[in-house]
Design goal:
Length: about 160
């Protein structure tokens, strides 16, 4: 099984907004990433996001470059300060490739827990718009197959 993880794109808070949304640069960056992802033909059964606007926007933009069998949905457990162990236990029940879109520090801790069984082990830094593919190689062992960042695609 593959697990794709993405941090929301660059965001901005405006005075009249209840919560941050993607900035114009954030939207451009995620679309550049999605354009590349389309060339490598990623297929997932589900795309989940934290329920916050900036992760929903990121998930929607990424979905233009990823084939998904179901509608994009929010899922509990991806908020910045959520307990990563709960999500680790949840994904162990899954059988199909899935994309999760979340926040820092959760995403960094989540990768640390999956790769090193230590959420405080800094395995990689999730810049805004970062995208990583993890592959489950045994029942509970995960490896990083690749990691991408939108600035790799800026001209």
């Amino acid at each position: 099984m593959r697990l794709y993880l993405a941090r929301h794109g660059e965001s901005i808070v405006k005075e009249n907004m209840h919560e941050p949304s993607l900035s114009e640069q954030g939207k451009k960056d995620i679309l550049l990433l999605a354009t590349f992802l389309k060339t490598i033909n990623i297929r997932v059964s589900n795309i989940f996001h934290s329920g916050k606007l900036r992760t929903q926007q990121t998930a929607e933009l990424l979905s233009t470059g990823i084939t998904c069998a179901t509608a994009i949905q929010p899922i509990a457990g991806l908020d910045p300060s959520d307990d990563v162990t709960l999500m680790v236990n949840e994904i162990m029940k899954w059988e199909y490739d899935t994309l999760l879109v979340g926040h820092l520090p959760f995403m960094s801790k989540f990768v640390g827990k999956l790769i090193a069984d230590n959420e405080y082990k800094e395995i990689m830094f999730f810049y805004p718009g970062s995208f990583v593919c993890l592959e489950q190689v045994e029942d509970s062992n995960w490896v990083i197959e690749y990691a991408l960042h939108p600035r790799l695609f800026r001209l």
